[in-house]
Amino acid sequence: MHDSDSAPETEAERKRRTRKILRRLDRDYPQAECALRHKSAWELLVATILSAQCTDVRVNKVTPQLFAAYPTVADMADAPIEEIQELVRTTGFFRNKAKALKGSAQRILAVYKGRVPSRMDQLVTLPGVARKTANVVTGTWFRKATGVVVDTHVRRISRRLGLTSEMDPGKIEKGLMQLLPRTRWVQYSHQIIHHGRQVCKARKPRCRECGLMALCPSAGKEA
Question: Does 151 qualify as catalytic in the annotation?
């Protein structure tokens, strides 16, 4: 790791530091997994759509009642939009989310025989599903590394760790895909999200409690 008075970090040095970061993430978060509760690809897709601009904790409070009311793709496809809106109201942007849920269910029935597709190019054709949501489903449920999920935690902490200087999530993902081994694309996001919730918080990172402190160029520099 280099401080502000050192020469810029070379690509080889950054890759070596990244490998050390990954080893420490494995040590600190060996069981990290998706925080959205789900029992199927459909439930994960629904929860991920609802998680936009909303905490996973809030989504996990909403989905049990939603899935009890509409347990299958077909049930959601047939559900009155007003009833879906009411059930997801507390997740924010509830009209758009309800429209996306119903629209996705209808398309999955019509085009994919009622089964959530496993391919990125198919998932992003569903209403309300962009690359980030598709990455969650392909990586977490189908165990296929199609990319790196870049949420607010991954964006913030990857920048703090000096693994990217980009602001745009798409550019951050592209850079991380080049930097990280493909076998780590999915787990990296899970581990960093847990790290962001527990230690590297947005307003006041707990640098002294951080297992990555010795490898982080931002350590101790943010209030």
Answer: yes
Is 75 catalytic? The answer is: no
Active-site choice (15, 99, 151, 174): 151
Identify the band that residue 132 occupies on the pLDDT scale cut at 50, 70 and 90: very high
Q: At what angle do helices 41-50 and 94-112 cross, to 10 degrees?
A: 150
The one catalytic residue in 132, 168, 174, 221 is 132
Residue 190 CB coordination number (10 Å): 20
More confident residue, 128 or 7: 128
> At residue 34, what is the residue type?
C
Structure tokens given for 141: 């449920």
pTM over 0.85: yes
pLDDT number for residue 165: 95
